[in-house]
C-alpha cells in the first residue's frame, strides 16, 4: 500500500502563500491526483482540485487562479502552491491519489492544517 503524508500547512495572514506537499512512500509515476480536499469542522468537505481522465487539472471557482498543482515523480511528491490566501481557505487539506483505471488503487493522507488569519 502506498502511504501518503501531507505537510507544509501553518498559520499565515490573508494574502500570503503556502506550499503543501503530499509525499508518497513509493513511486507515484503511475498515479493520478484524484483530488485535493479541504475541510473545516462542522462543514462539508470541499473538493477543490481534480485531474480528469485526460490529464487536465480542474480547479473549483473558489481557488481558480490562486492554487496550482504540480508534481515531482523523482521525489514521489505532489505539490499544491497556494497564493493570495483568504480566511475562507482555512481548513485541513488532504490529498487523494489513485489510478483512474483501477478503483482499488486509492490512497489518502492524514491531512495538514492551514489557517489563514484576517
Please characterize this protein's 3D structure.
The protein has 118 residues and is mainly β. Helix content is 0%, strand content 55%. It has no helices and 11 strands. The protein has strands at 4-7, 11-13, 18-24, 32-39, 46-51, 57-59, 67-72, 77-82, 91-99, 102-108, 112-117. Strands 2, 4, 5, 6, 9, 10 and 11 form a 7-stranded mixed sheet that branches. A 4-stranded antiparallel sheet has the order 1-3-8-7, with no helix packed on it. Strand 4 and strand 5 form a beta hairpin. The protein starts with a strand and ends with a strand. The relative contact order is 0.33. The model has no long low-confidence stretch (mean pLDDT 94).
Task: Report the mean per-residue pLDDT as an integer.
Answer: 94
Number of strand elements: 11
What global shape is seen? globular
Strand content: over 45%
Largest sheet: 7 strands, mixed
Which bin fits the share of residues in helices?
under 10%
Low confidence ranges = none
H/E series, N to C? EEEEEEEEEEE
Gyration radius, in Å: 14 Å
How far apart, in Å, are the first and last alpha carbons? 40 Å
Class from secondary-structure proportions = mainly beta
User: How many individual helices?
Assistant: 0
- Which oligomerization state do the chains in this entry correspond to? single chain
Amino acid at each position: 500500500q502506498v502511504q501518503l503524508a501531507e505537510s507544509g500547512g501553518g498559520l499565515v495572514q490573508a494574502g500570503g502563500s503556502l506550499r503543501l506537499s503530499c509525499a508518497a512512500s513509493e513511486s507515484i509515476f503511475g498515479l493520478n491526483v484524484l483530488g485535493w480536499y479541504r475541510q473545516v469542522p462542522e462543514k462539508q468537505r470541499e473538493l477543490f482540485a481534480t485531474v480528469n481522465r485526460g490529464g487536465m487539472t480542474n480547479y473549483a471557482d473558489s481557488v481558480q487562479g490562486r492554487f496550482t498543482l504540480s508534481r515531482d515523480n523523482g521525489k514521489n511528491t505532489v505539490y499544491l502552491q497556494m497564493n493570495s490566501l483568504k480566511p475562507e481557505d482555512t481548513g485541513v487539506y488532504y490529498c487523494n491519489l489513485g489510478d483512474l483505471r483501477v478503483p482499488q488503487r486509492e490512497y489518502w493522507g492524514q491531512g495538514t492544517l492551514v489557517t489563514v488569519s484576517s
